[in-house]
Each structure stands twice: as C-alpha cells, then as structure tokens.
Amino acid sequence: MSERLNLYDFAPDRLRSELSGIVSPPFRIKQIEEWMYVRGVDTFEAMTNLPKETRAALAQRFTIEFPEVVEITPPAPDGSRKYLFKLSDGNRIESVYMPMGERTSVCLSSQAGCAVGCTFCVTGFFGAGRNLTPSEILGQFFTIQREHAVAPEQMNIVFMGMGEPLLNLDNVVQSLEVFYRTIAPKRITLSTSGIIPGIEALAALDRRPNLAVSINAPDRPRREEIMPITAKYPLDGLMAVLRRFPLEKGRDITIEYVLLAGYNDSREDAAVLARLIRGLDAKVNAIPLNEDENLPAWMKRPSEEAIDDFVEALVRNGVQVTVRRSKGRAIAAACGQLRGKNQPLPRKSLVRYAAEPAVKRESPSHRRAGERRR
Ligand code: SAH
Ligand code: SF4
Questions:
Q1: What residue spans of 192-351 are helical by DSSP H?
Q2: Are the beta carbons of 150 and 179 closer than 8 angstroms?
Q3: How many CA atoms lie within 13 A of 271 on its CB side?
Q4: pLDDT tens-digit readout, 249-275
Q5: Which residue in 117, 209, 218, 319 has its CB near the most CB atoms, within 10 A?
Q6: Which of 120, 127, 121 is nearest to 263 (CA)?
Q7: Which atom of ligand 2 is least distant from the CA of 227?
Q8: How far is the CA of 34 from the centre of ligand 2 (A)?
Q9: For 259, phi and psi rounded to 5 degrees?
C-alpha cells in the first residue's frame, strides 16, 4: 500500500492549501484542479502543461491513483459492462457502465459491501464492507468515463452499486462536489434504503442529487421482513421525512420497488403502495427481482404478465411508474447482483434466510410464485 496521500481524497480547500506549499505560481493549482476534477487523470505525468519539476515534486509526496481495474466483462446484449476494481487493501468493488443512446450512465459503489442486509440483495448477503474513500468513488467514474471517452455532459451517475451511500455520507458528498464541476446535480441520482438522518443531511445541502428510495414493500411488516433496517428507521418516519424533502422544480423522488413474485406484486399491493405515497411528488420505479442463487429459494421474479398487472394497477391509482428492465442481467451486473465478485461464495450452510416468507399477505390472494391471478 502506498504511503503517499491521494490528492483525490482531499476536499478542494485542503487540496489548495496542501499544494500552495509546493506549487507556484497560484494559477498552477487551478491547472491541477482542472486535470483532476474535470479530466480525471490518474498520473501526474498526464498534467502536460505543468513543468516537469512540479510534476516530480508532486509525485514524490502524493499520488492521484485510482483503484486497479481487474476485470471488465464483455458487453451484455444491452451494451452494459461490469467493472471489477481491486482496492489497495485487497477489497473488491464493482461498477457498471450502461450506454443508453444519447446518454451514458455509470452505476457507482459507495461501500465495499453493505451492512444494511436487505434479504433480496446479493451485496447485502455478503455483509458489511468499509466505506469507500473519495478517490475510490471518483476513480470508478473517471476510469469508466475516460475509457469510453464520453463527454461528462452526456453522463448520468447513479449511486446504486454496492453499499448504502447515506452511511458514507461525507465521502459521497465530497465526491458529489467534484462531479458537479462537470455534471449537473439533476443528472446524478443517489439511492438509499431509507437512512433517515442521512436523508435529513441531504435535505440540508445547497446542491442535491436526485433522491431514490428503496421502499420495496407496501407495509411495515413486509418491509421489516425483507429490509430489517425498517426496525431502526420505521416506514412512517421515512415517509414523513420524504414529505419534507425539498425538491427543485421539475424533480420527483423515485420510489424503488423490487417486485417479488407472490409477495408484494399483487394489484392490492399496488393500491396500498399508491396510498402510502399519496401526496408525495414521486414516481415509482418497479424493479422485477434479479434472481440469484444466493437468495432464498422463494424469491422469484414475477412473470411479465404479473409485472404488467402491477404497473397497470399503479397507473389506475394515479401513480406514475416505470419498470426497470435491469441492464446487465446477463453479466450479473444488475441491481442487487453486485458482490465484488471473485470473493469466495458462501457455503450453502451459511445461508441465513428463511426458506419461506414469514409475513404472508392478509388478502386471500397470496399466491405461489408465478401463479396467475385476476
Ligand atoms: N443501498 C442503496 C443503493 C444500492 S441498491 C439502496 O438500497 O437503495 C440499488 C437498488 O437495487 C435498490 O433499489 C435495491 O432495492 C435494488 N435491489 C437490490 N437487490 C435487488 C435484486 N436482487 N433485484 C432487483 N433489485 C434489487
Ligand atoms: Fe445494501 Fe441497498 Fe443491498 Fe439493501 S439493497 S443490502 S441497502 S446495497
């Protein structure tokens, strides 16, 4: 591991003060900031308008390196590619490049694992991991952006990879401030499992990314079953904080809702969800479950018919809804499938999830996975 500090880990103020002792005249500092925050270079050598001696002096004291790319999957049919990075302490994280016509999205990880432990999520299954540093967050983005030579103005960023971004708020916000140099806040979306103090902290910022919240169940008992964090941050408290969340003109909160066959995907569930979010400037993003061998056997993706029924019922209840046809399923890069791969898979005996859902729906229409209902 390198002893030298990584300049990408410094907040811009600190960067300037650290550099002012070494670099002169002051306009050189501006040039360095431009190379880092706008161009995202990862060697001092690349800063070609700086004198050689300045570059050498910087390299002696600091680094600007990014996590090492250890694997890039071949493109999935939809063009997306998964990037596996190795961090300097050996941890592995994943990011996803998603070309989408005019725009390109990059899905970033915020932690090397996730302590929140949602039972339908593979990242959660593999457990907690440390917070990523700003250089590790920025590095995922700039590595992918530079490799594909996409202009920053054409990029969207989503914090929907591994980890809970609001449990790593300081480093995420510091990274956001760098991204804002080239990417408008409305082009950046942060997805959270509903960490109430973190949402309040976001609400207090001058500039905010779009907020997406993983609700995933229409009521407290079911949310508590699949998202144990609900016991700590209850659903009614979460909804209250969302109602207070300041929204810029034209923006909505995205309510993410993972569809689990026979569990939370009925027409009645859609009606209850619509009631839950009534009065909120929100749109629902329904995410049919991405199945995985590490998830409990009862967790299945609903049939296309069931997905359509659910969406139709939401629309009839006045809710705006889109369905996330997850990119990258073929390469296990879809939502909830990121695990920092090549980490050993757990033995079957370690599987800690219930074989059956504990919370049955009260309505008589509790179905087995895939069963058709009207
Ligand atoms: N920790 C944050 C962001 C990362 S998860 C959060 O939970 O919001 C990004 C999204 O993937 C969340 O909406 C989550 O509900 C969803 N997700 C997790 N596992 C999934 C799976 N197996 N299939 C489909 N979506 C999943
Ligand atoms: Fe963590 Fe999000 Fe996965 Fe839940 S869904 S375990 S919060 S990464």
A1: 196-203, 220-226, 235-244, 267-276, 304-316
A2: no
A3: 4
A4: 999 999 999 999 999 999 999 999 999
A5: 209
A6: 120
A7: 4
A8: 34
A9: -90, 120
The second-level CATH assignment, the architecture, of 68-362 is Alpha-Beta Barrel (3.20)
Q: Is 216 in the pocket of ligand 1 (CB under 6 A)?
A: yes
Given a contact cutoff of 8 angstroms between Cβ atoms, the answer to whether 341 and 332 are in contact is: yes
Bridge-partner residues for 321, per DSSP?
284
172 lines ligand 1 (CB under 6 A): no
Beta strands 92-100; 81-86: pairing state? antiparallel
Q: Which of 94, 136, 164, 256 is catalytic?
A: 94
Q: Nearest Cα to 126, choosing from 85, 93, 80, 103?
A: 93
Does the C-beta of 336 come closer than 6 Å to ligand 1? yes
pLDDT band at 206 (very low <50, low <70, confident <90, very high): very high
Domain ranges of the chain: 5-63, 68-362
The angle formed by the CA atoms of residues 255, 260 and 265, to the nearest 5 degrees, is 70
Q: Examine domains 5-63 and 68-362 and report if their fold is the same.
A: no
CA distances from 116 to 127, 227, 233 (A): 8, 8, 11
CA of 59 to the centre of ligand 1 (A): 39
CB atoms within 10 A of CB 237: 13
β-strand partners of 337: none
Is 71 designated active site?
no
Region of 104 (left: φ > 0; alpha: ψ -120 to 50; beta: rest) is beta
| Catalytic (active site) residue 335 | yes
Catalytic residue among 102, 335, 356, 371: 335
The two structure tokens encoding residue 151: 């202009």
42 close to ligand 1 (CB < 6 Angstrom): no
State which fold the 5-63 domain adopts.
DNA polymerase; domain 1 (1.10.150)
The response to whether residue 160 sits with its C-beta less than 6 Å from ligand 1 reads yes
Does residue 27 register a pLDDT over 80?
A: yes
Whether the predicted model's global pTM rises above the 0.70 cut = yes
Task: In whole angstroms, give the CA distance from residue 127 to residue 122.
Answer: 9
Contact 288, 323 (CB under 8 A): yes
pLDDT band at 358 (very low <50, low <70, confident <90, very high): low
